[in-house]
Amino acid sequence: MSMIRDLRAAVRPSLRKTNALHSSYDTTRDPSASSAVVDCAVYRDGRRVESAGCLTPHEAMLRVREDGGFAWIGLHEPTEEEFAGIAREFGLHPLAVEDAVHAHQRPKLERYDDTLFTVFKTIHYVEHAELTATSEVVETGEVMCFTGRDFVITVRHGGHGSLRALRHRLQDDPELLAKGPSSVLHSIADHVVDGYIAVAGAVQDDIDEVEIEVFSTPAKGSPRGSDASRIYQLKREVLEFKRAVSPLLRPMQLLSERPMRLIDPDIQKYFRDVADHLARVHEEVIGFDELLNSILQANLAQATVAQNEDMRKITSWAAIIAVPTMICGVYGMNFKHMPELRWTYGYPMVMGVIGVVCFSIHRSLKRNGWL
């Protein structure tokens, strides 16, 4: 899939350039000629205004200004050229436009004149049969939302986090959608945070699995401490999760507590619920980080203990072997006059002494837990 996305990313710019050269269509006047527009619709009294064909952003804005309602335009990974016409049509601030096009932004909430610009990090859990030292656990994307008095523009980056199902779900709830663009902003925030909750549950399962393996008896031939690389990889993925959740706390707090002209007071109450869910996820992610720190320390401690046990065994056997080495070394000296050299029972006696002393040392060490 990644190869296909890379190939598509490489081919799309050349195709757009070719189409621009061979088409007399004015994309500056009609930005919807861009292939980045996923959907464009006008909503009035909570219901989608149907049209004979697909509306362009310019046509949608004209209808809104003539008959009321609001326009919702969805884009996926637009280029600067594709987004330039829409930005001019809706009077979007250049700094916000630059952030929306280039992505890789922290979650934030900014106000430009009569437009709110909100950045959300989407999180997708990557399924894997077994957690390894190179497993990708979470994959991030972004959703940027421009919210005005009579329009909502969503810009999505990444291969997941589609808003199509969310749009259909909102269209089935005209009473909520009638609240205007702020209802769409709330639904997007709620959708993103619900995704966090689902991913947090899956990550918890991975951490539980690693914890059980760390504190269980290792398989034969598997050394203690061999899970450190997997724990560290999981910790990096949790850190990526944390970077998506933590910066969003302040924007959700502002949307739920501070009165804003662009946010319907009835919708603001719903933001409190989103902020509460986000705070709960944030606490869970912080807990994941601390728990992984403890598991990693326990894993390293087990490796240290295992090494100490190995060293004690090596030392114990070295002490036992030292006895026959010493005695044999004494009798291996080339002195002419030494006791027991010509005694008939000298050899059996020396071997017996060696055996008794080695057995005594072995028994003593085993009693003390060294062997």
Provide a descriptive summary of the structure in words.
The chain has helices at 2-22, 57-67, 80-90, 94-102, 164-171, 174-177, 181-215, 228-245, 249-257, 265-331, 346-367; strands spanning 37-44, 47-49, 70-76, 108-112, 115-125, 138-147, 151-157. It is an alpha+beta fold. The chain has a seven-stranded mixed sheet with strand order 2-1-3-7-6-5-4, with helices on both faces. β4 (108-112) and β5 form a beta hairpin. The protein starts with a helix and ends with a helix.
Any chance you could write out the topology, listing elements then pairs?
Layout (H helix, E strand, L loop, with lengths): L1 H21 L14 E8 L2 E3 L7 H11 L2 E7 L3 H11 L3 H9 L5 E5 L2 E11 L12 E10 L3 E7 L6 H8 L2 H4 L3 H35 L12 H18 L3 H9 L7 H67 L14 H22 L4
Label this structure with key terms.
11 helices, 58% helix, 14% strand, rod-shaped
What's the alpha carbon Rg, rounded to whole Å? 35 Å
Mean pLDDT: 82
> Biggest sheet: strands side by side, in what order?
2-1-3-7-6-5-4
User: What count of helical segments does DSSP give?
Assistant: 11
The residue fraction in helices comes out at 55-70%
Oligomer: single chain
Helix-strand topology string: HEEHEHHEEEEHHHHHHH
What is this structure, in a nutshell?
Helix content is 58%, strand content 14%.
